[in-house]
Write a structure and sequence with these properties.
Glycosyltransferase, alpha+beta, 16 helices, globular, 672 residues, Beta-galactosidase, Chain A, domain 5, three-stranded antiparallel sheet, 17-stranded mixed sheet
Length: 672
């Protein structure tokens, strides 16, 4: 490991060629010791001549610090040896010399971007505090970065470990003694007398609050690990200083550095594309509902234990009923399954007859159990519905089957899109059937780029292409250039993965219908947004405690993406993004993208529910959704399990799209 780190540091040094005269870092170290039944006592430590960290009084633990500097990377190694049984929590603070906290923005991958000001005060953000530290399993890579907007300098701290152990904690606030060994430390940033500081330590200590549930902040939690007499624990961090032209380049640099450090490998599973689709297709078989005017595959608001169909149907977002109908149709015809073909066609026919509002929008969400449906619509769900139907129409046309009534419906809804689009190219997030906007936020705009580009290709109407290109202008100006990706997911209003993923994919679609310098620009924009989407995906495998189901079944988190600041769980939201990564790898000669795409494509098939390996899911092929990998939940089950309610409609659709990598290029190439 030490040899590997040295080679890595030398490689990074050679790339940047700066800060060659690195001096030992001045790091403040504190240790808190707890005696069961008593409050912990914190001691400030000072380094002695022999390299030991000592307090003003004799402690029951020996702490040795070694620091190795190599250009812009320093390795900090702490060795703890218990002189007698001890319960400890170690903290280190690296105050950045001359770096004003007000000049900085911050980064904790998959959890914190800029100052998290898109998030409400009930979630971690600067609205609550300008200093935050969190447990490492909240993060897609266990690191914190601080970017100085005035100078372009950035600093990151990254922990190196095998990350094998986790233990159950009796409390999720206050001081808590862990039930066993853990590999989880903490990382974060702090305002220290006006200067920014990296703060990190072990085991975890979350402050000023700990985020335990959606929009629920608890008081701080500080964990204590036990060391028996003579037992030793070694901790290693690397601190890197470098420079980037802006926050976006900073995130890209850190992702590349993290990837080169962790080198995540593919996860071995038993599934190739054919077998994976065969298992997932059981969802189409068992979820079909035909007793209402709209026929559908039931995929929302169902229980994980029985997967019983529900009376709710949703066009996009977590339902994806039309995309699943297309998937079932295509698969049914490929495999000669006439029952699937019949079910899929009945869904399309029912939506053609009953699926639209008076002004031609899709009926987005209908709850037959309550005899109600939403009257507020979203550009995201509407776009996902059009996306599915254009795939269907294109497929049908190649089969020699025409659907003029569907074409009229889609032209109407596209006309509605053009009415909704703002002068800046953006689309409002939410509106009603009379075009009254209730949420003008433009974070969901890239979801509309996909169907607009597809519609131009299908209908040969340049107005759709002009509208798509106009979205790209908005995306570049307001999202990509500002590295501000937000509010694409509909059940949160915050920084999220899906906005960056959609932005990258939107530019990919536009590259399919453009040439020359214009196309090159879209490729560059796709790559820039891709780094932010990638930043949400896990580089490492978080540990689980015994009894936490995900750990017991050997689940690996690498390749899975965190969702948003508000919704702190991982899921299989991928759709075309793995294909985009493979495409970018070729376009921009970036092998890391295609390598990590393979990690994603293998890892995301791990929890396939099949007989004998159901992973706590009630039916074969109903792929799990809310995978709770850290100390956060929606109110049920917690780390190592799922929430009790889930939506397999979108998980099946996402994986199916991932397993159909030629679908996009075939759609566009067919028209050229």
């Amino acid at each position: 490991m030490k040899k590997y780190l040295f080679l890595l540091m030398f490689s990074v040094l050679g790339s940047f060629g700066i800060y060659a005269e690195a001096m030992p870092l001045s790091i403040e170290t504190n240790i808190s010791l707890k005696s069961p039944g008593n409050p912990a006592v914190t001691y400030k430590l000072n380094q002695s001549a022999e390299g030991l960290l000592k307090a003003q009084r004799e402690l029951p633990i020996q702490i040795k610090q070694e620091q190795t500097n190599n250009g812009d990377v320093s390795e900090i190694k702490i060795t703890l040896t218990a002189k007698e049984r001890v319960y400890y929590n170690l903290e280190q603070i690296y105050s950045l010399p001359g770096v004003n906290h007000n000049d900085c923005e911050f980064y904790m991958p998959g959890f914190w971007y800029h100052r998290n000001l898109r998030s409400p005060k009930e979630a971690p953000s600067f609205h609550t505090s300008d200093s935050w530290q969190v447990r490492e399993d909240r993060l897609s890579t266990p690191l914190t970065g601080i970017y100085n907007n005035k100078t372009g300098d950035y600093y990151i701290v990254l922990r190196i470990d095998d990350f094998k152990y986790e233990s159950l904690a009796p409390h999720n606030s206050g001081e808590t003694i862990l039930s066993g060994k853990t590999s989880l430390g903490f990382t974060g940033f702090r305002n220290v007398n006006g200067n920014s500081a990296l703060v990190f330590g072990f085991p975890y200590h979350e402050a000023p609050k700990t985020y335990i549930r959606k929009l629920t902040l608890n008081p701080s939690v500080q964990a204590f690990e036990k060391l028996e007499k003579g037992e030793t624990r070694q901790l290693v961090w690397t601190i890197k200083k470098s420079k980037a032209q802006d926050y976006s380049a900073f995130v890209a640099d850190v992702w590349n550095y993290s990837y080169d450090t962790f080198k995540p490998q593919q996860v071995k599973t038993a599934y190739d594309t054919a077998l994976a689709k065969k298992v997932l297709s059981n969802f189409f078989v068992e979820s079909y509902v035909d007793k209402y005017d709209l026929k559908y595959f039931s995929g929302v608001h169902m229980r994980i234990d029985n997967c019983a169909s529900t009376p709710s149907v949703e066009i996009g977002f977590v339902g994806r009923v039309l995309l699943n109908a297309f998937n079932a149709l295509e698969y049914g015809e490929e495999t000669g399954n006439n029952d699937l073909v019949k079910k899929a066609n009945s869904i399309f026919d029912s939506f053609l007859q009953y699926g639209f509002t008076s002004n031609g929008f899709f009926r987005e969400f209908v709850d037959y159990g309550r005899n109600s449906e939403t009257s507020i619509y979203s550009i995201r769900r509407q776009s996902e519905g059009v996306f599915a139907i254009l795939n269907y129409l294109n497929y049908e046309k190649k089969k020699g089957r025409k659907h003029p009534e569907w074409e009229v419906k889609i032209k109407t809804i596209l006309s509605n899109f053009l009415k909704l689009q703002g002068a800046d190219g953006s689309f409002p997030r939410k509106f009603d059937d009379k075009f009254n906007v209730s949420d003008a936020s433009g974070g969901s705009t890239p979801s509309a780029t996909l169907p607009l580009t597809m519609a131009y290709t299908y209908f040969k109407n340049k107005a759709y292409l002009d509208a798509a290109k106009s979205t790209a202008v908005y995306l570049e100006k307001e999202l990509i250039s500002k590295s501000d990706y937000f509010s694409s997911t509909l059940d949160a209003n915050c920084e999220d993965k899906e906005a960056s993923l959609y932005a990258s994919t939107a530019m990919y679609y536009l590259s399919m219908v453009t040439n020359g310098k214009e196309r090159d620009h879209y490729v560059d924009m796709s790559k820039q947004a891709a780094y932010f989407s990638l930043s949400w995906y896990y580089m490492w495998d978080v540990p689980f405690a015994g009894g936490q189901m995900l750990g017991d079944v050997g689940f690996k988190s690498r390749g899975w993406g965190n969702v948003s600041v508000e919704n702190n769980h991982i899921d299989v939201f991928i759709f075309e993004f793995a294909t985009v990564l493979d495409w970018l790898a070729k376009e921009r000669k970036e092998p890391r993208f295609s390598e990590f795409s393979q990690v994603i494509k293998t890892s995301m098939l791990q929890l396939m529910p099949v007989e004998g390996h159901m992973f706590n899911i009630g039916k074969v092929g109903y792929y799990p959704e809310v995978v709770q990998h850290t100390n956060w939940d929606y109110g049920k089950n917690g780390k190592g399990f799922y929430n009790d309610i889930f939506a397999p409609g979108w998980t099946v659709a996402s994986l199916w799209q991932m397993l159909s990598p030629d679908r996009v290029e075939n759609y566009f190439n067919n028209k050229k």
